[in-house]
Amino acid sequence: MDENKICFITCVNDEEWYSECLLYLKHLDIPDGMQAEYIGIRGAASMAAGYNKGMQQSDAKYKVYLHQDTLLVKKDFVSGIKSIFQDELIGAIGVIGCKNLPASGVWWDGMRTFGRVLHACEAESIVDSELQEPRGEYTPVEAVDGLLIATQYDIPWREDLFTGWHLYDTSQCKEFARRGYRVVVPNQTDGFWCIHCPKEKPLAPEYKGYQKAFLDEYGDELQPEV
User: Fold this and answer.
1) pTM tops 0.85, yes or no
2) CB of 92 within 8 A of CB of 185?
3) 85: left (phi over 0), alpha (psi -120 to 50) or beta
4) Does residue 122 surpass a pLDDT of 60?
5) Most buried in the list 55, 92, 109, 117, measured by CB within 10 Å?
């Protein structure tokens, strides 16, 4: 693993959005002595499969898995995550998530949610989704949203279970926990780290199937707050 390299990995099905995503990524401040690479995976069978493919193509120690409609605006993002990753027990960083997963396994149903992200779902309409702010540099959480997940260790994404576009992110957080690593959400009081631009749409019908698969695999490991 090359400690002086960071790789940004994205599953792509919209070239216009990915071009915009890359524009922001290529304007980040890269610390002296570090190299950045960008991998776009096209035609992926699932998010997990695409991320595994991207992971295998890079020897970068630091990998950032992000949606094509996530615009990373924190200029010193790379030095920011490197500072957090100085704690070798931290395996992954996300920008929004929950302290303890609820019995449903759905992070946004959790009682204590942390983080901040700007949502631009419609033209000229931006919503600041601001949850609790961590005290200190970051706070440990059980799961983060897949709009952006930065890692310092390569752990396979469960493409055997999550063959679509849902719950792959929460599953990956549990895979890190199974190996003794923590997942954290950073403090963003100095400004949000990214803008997410998803289209407003109802929850996909197949979501429930992946929710069941998640609970079948990890349900016994959950400790929901009451």
Assistant:
1) yes
2) no
3) alpha
4) no
5) 92
